[in-house]
């Protein structure tokens, strides 16, 4: 995508080296390298040098064979062939990219590595969050090469206070526009389509307020279970993993006032403003629910009880399904509940924003059959748009019928991580989370985390493969 009116990226120096810390990790193999392949295939970033680093004792050959594997997986799923420059870059990188063994928490080790690389450098911290924080603290003692960009994954800190401390550390290293806090949902084409849908159509914006909208639900339910990520997930849970970051960002795009431009300053100012006005809707004990899956079946697969999975500590009471209701205190949204929900091991995946409109103020006598309000569904995978309306139906023309106007939206040729890396390499932080937003997202969910820690909200259970505990969605 192009980034109009960006304040910084046109003058940002070209990144020469992309250094991925955590080269042997899950994120790097499954998402980052395929994202890089999709970017290169578009002919972007084709002259970069890629360096992988990590604590594993890998040889360059092991790293290159990982590159080959991830690049060819991306190639197999690409909708279009790579352009010539892209093909050449893919071939060059997977035969020449170097691997460096490093403990990034060791004082001086990372600074020494940076000194040996061609700058400007983008450092991608694909590391466990605590290790990323430590690596950034250790870097405080050194001068970074000019133009260094820092790319931090979620979760950004573990609460408002630690996010603030991490922001201060990062600010002491490089200016804000050289910091990319990744939320790859902001790279999803359907999520970005919310902007076009809302602000390029006369039809919706006049109705986009509390006069016409009853409620907004943002749901990301998956059939996927732990996928060998117990070490991370059991300390995070559904609220921190999904709602605190991704779903609040989606909510913000649905709730923002029209920005003057889609630029890093104007768009992110609006996101910051709407999140500052957002809070849990009343007492957390009433506005949140949590649950954990037990043994069940998904499709033909038996799923063990969450607490019996390797690496899980049942005493942590980690939720695999979370729901919170938030309110936005503004003229536009006063009184409209925003319900955010996400869970794992559910019978059916449901990934969408559902906007429910208020009933018509008056239905003329003689028109019958209406029992459902107008609803707009924005699907996040598959990427779809559906408008559910009532029209005169077949048979008795005055008996109304439900009709759905549907469209499949074209996904961007770049994967979400391709979009993320495009922003990093071009020096445009438009799609990255600004420092204030990273802290606000924690501020919003912290009352719920506290209430859960104090057991003010029961941890319910649901069998894997079900729709969740009975009575959900609430
Ligand atoms: P993994 O645990 O799979 O990988 C972490 C990597 O960091 C490993 O390569 C590990 O090497 C390396 N590492 C750990 N300690 C050090 C150290 N001291 N010095 C150098 N390297 C070190 O984690 P993920 O890839 O899953 O996650 C990475 C980040 O991405 C996290 O912040 C996560 O929240 C985020 N994320 C992950 C997603 C995913 O689907 N995996 C999705 C979205 C975000 P070794 O194995 O040798 O210890």
UniProtKB/TrEMBL annotation:
Gene: zwf
Known pathway: Carbohydrate degradation; pentose phosphate pathway; D-ribulose 5-phosphate from D-glucose 6-phosphate (oxidative stage): step 1/3
Molecular function (Gene Ontology), one example: glucose-6-phosphate dehydrogenase activity
Annotated binding of substrate, by residue: 184, 188, 222, 241, 344
Keyword NADP: yes
Enzyme Commission identifier(s): 1.1.1.49
NADP keyword on record: yes
One Pfam family of this chain: G6PD_N
Name of this protein: Glucose-6-phosphate 1-dehydrogenase
Sorted UniProt keywords: Carbohydrate metabolism, Glucose metabolism, NADP, Oxidoreductase
Gene3D superfamilies (alphabetical): Dihydrodipicolinate Reductase, domain 2 (3.30.360.10), NAD(P)-binding Rossmann-like Domain (3.40.50.720)
Organism: Saxibacter everestensis
Taxonomic classification: Bacteria, Bacillati, Actinomycetota, Actinomycetes, Micrococcales
Binding-site residues, NADP(+): 55, 103-104, 154
Active site residues of this protein: 246
């Amino acid at each position: 995508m192009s980034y109009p009116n960006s304040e910084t990226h046109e003058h940002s120096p070209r990144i020469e080296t992309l250094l991925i810390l955590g080269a042997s990790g899950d994120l790097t193999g499954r998402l980052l390298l395929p994202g890089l392949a999709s970017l290169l295939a578009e002919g972007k970033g084709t002259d970069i040098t890629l360096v992988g680093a990590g604590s594993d004792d890998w040889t360059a050959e092991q790293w290159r064979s990982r590159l080959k594997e991830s690049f060819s997986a991306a190639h197999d799923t690409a909708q279009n062939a790579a352009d010539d420059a892209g093909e050449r870059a893919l071939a060059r990188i997977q035969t020449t990219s170097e691997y460096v063994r490093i403990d990034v928490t060791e004082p001086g080790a990372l600074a020494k590595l940076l000194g040996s690389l061609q700058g400007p450098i983008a450092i991608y911290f694909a590391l466990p969050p605590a290790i990323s924080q430590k690596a950034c603290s250790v870097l405080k003692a050194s001068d970074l090469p000019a133009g260094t960009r820092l790319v931090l994954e979620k979760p950004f800190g573990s609460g408002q206070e630690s996010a603030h401390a991490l922001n201060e550390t990062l600010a002491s290293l490089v200016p804000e526009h050289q910091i990319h806090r990744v939320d790859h949902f902001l790279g999803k084409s359907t999520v970005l389509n919310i902007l076009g849908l809302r602000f390029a159509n006369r039809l919706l914006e006049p109705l986009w307020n509390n006069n016409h909208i009853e409620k907004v639900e943002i749901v990301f339910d998956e059939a996927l279970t732990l996928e060998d990520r117990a070490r991370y997930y059991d300390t995070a849970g559904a609220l921190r993993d999904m709602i605190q970051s991704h779903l609040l960002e989606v909510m913000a795009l649905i709730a923002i006032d029209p920005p003057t431009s889609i630029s890093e300053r104007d768009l992110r100012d609006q996101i910051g403003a709407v999140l500052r006005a957002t809070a849990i809707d009343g007492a957390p004990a009433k506005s949140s629910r949590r649950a954990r899956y037990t043994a069940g079946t998904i499709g033909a697969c038996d799923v063990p009880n969450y607490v019996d999975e390797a690496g899980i500590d049942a005493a942590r009471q980690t939720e695999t399904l979370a729901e919170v209701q938030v309110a936005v205190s503004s003229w536009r949204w006063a009184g409209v509940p925003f319900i955010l929900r996400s869970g794992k091991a559910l019978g059916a995946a449901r990934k969408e924003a559902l906007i429910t409109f208020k009933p018509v103020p008056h239905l003329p006598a003689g028109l019958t059959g209406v029992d459902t309000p107008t609803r707009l569904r924005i699907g996040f995978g598959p990427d779809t748009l559906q408008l559910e309306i009532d029209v005169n139906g077949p048979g008795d023309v005055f008996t109304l019928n439900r009709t759905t106007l549907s469209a499949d939206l074209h996904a961007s040729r770049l994967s979400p991580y391709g979009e993320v890396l495009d922003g990093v390499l071009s020096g445009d932080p438009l799609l990255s989370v600004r420092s204030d937003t990273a802290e606000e997202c924690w501020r919003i969910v912290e009352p719920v985390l506290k209430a859960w820690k104090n057991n003010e909200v029961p941890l319910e259970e649901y069998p894997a493969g079900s729709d969740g505990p009975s009575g959900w969605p609430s």
